[in-house]
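Lab notebook, design round three. We kept the backbone fixed and only want residue identities now. Task for the bench partner: fill in a sequence for the structure below.
Input structure tokens:
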């Protein structure tokens, strides 16, 4: 994703191979420090309309920046709103940077499965060697990353628009999770999956109109249903063996 005006957010697909290697190395280092595997429990949340249900999934979040818990929570709420409009209910699970004592009951330490989603909020230091305008990237099937510093820069650039950091960060979270569910080459000329964000996109985000398209929403729901089926099959196989 890129933004125009004072800043430009990079197009993930153009440099995917480089970033995939970069992200993989970071994930190895983080996983070594945390000493836990990621997991997801698929459930169904019922909306207020009778008979209307939408799939829900957990996104495991680790904040590796100076962003406050309040900022992260607000960003998660914004991303959750955008994804809910597409037909998915997000349950955000904020995991610690380090896990000192193994605990099988801890959802942050549950086994990795087909339906896992892991979101990292990264500092500018981890962006070293890449364009300063990188806002985030995704590595299939389960890793999304966003740069906190880029959200701060864009908020400053569009300060006259009333834009705040959590709103931008939340939009970036939804965009990168969108890549995990739609594919890496899934930028579009309209909506939240636009590769370039400028003043027009900022205004749309402020108005809560920067969303997934109808077709993208359909694809997202279909992809998540497929992942849930794979996860259920894996759990069934595990239970049968045990």
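Proposed sequence:
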């Amino acid at each position: 994703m890129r933004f125009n005006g004072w800043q430009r957010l990079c197009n993930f697909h153009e440099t995917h191979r480089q970033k995939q290697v970069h992200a993989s190395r970071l994930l190895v280092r983080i996983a070594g420090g945390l000493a836990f595997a990621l997991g997801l429990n698929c459930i169904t949340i019922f909306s207020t309309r009778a008979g209307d249900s939408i799939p829900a999934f957990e996104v495991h979040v680790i904040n590796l920046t100076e962003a406050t818990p309040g900022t992260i929570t607000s960003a998660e709420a914004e991303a959750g709103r955008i994804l809910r409009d597409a037909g998915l209910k997000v349950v955000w699970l904020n995991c610690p940077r380090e896990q000192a004592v193994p605990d099988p009951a801890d959802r942050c330490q549950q086994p990795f499965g087909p339906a896992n989603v892991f979101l990292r909020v990264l500092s500018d230091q981890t962006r070293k060697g890449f364009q300063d305008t990188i806002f985030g990237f995704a590595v299939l099937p389960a890793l999304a990353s966003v740069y906190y510093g880029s959200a701060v820069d864009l908020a400053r650039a569009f300060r006259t628009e009333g834009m705040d950091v959590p709103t931008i960060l939340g939009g970036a979270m939804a965009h990168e999770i969108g890549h995990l569910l739609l594919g890496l080459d899934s930028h579009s000329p309209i909506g939240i999956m636009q590769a370039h964000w400028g003043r027009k996109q900022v205004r749309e985000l402020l108005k809560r109109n920067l969303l997934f398209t109808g077709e993208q929403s359909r694809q997202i729901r279909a992809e998540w249903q497929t992942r849930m089926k794979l996860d259920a099959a894996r759990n069934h196989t595990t239970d049968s063996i045990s």
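Keep this in mind before ordering anything: Confidence is low (pLDDT under 50) at residues 3-52.
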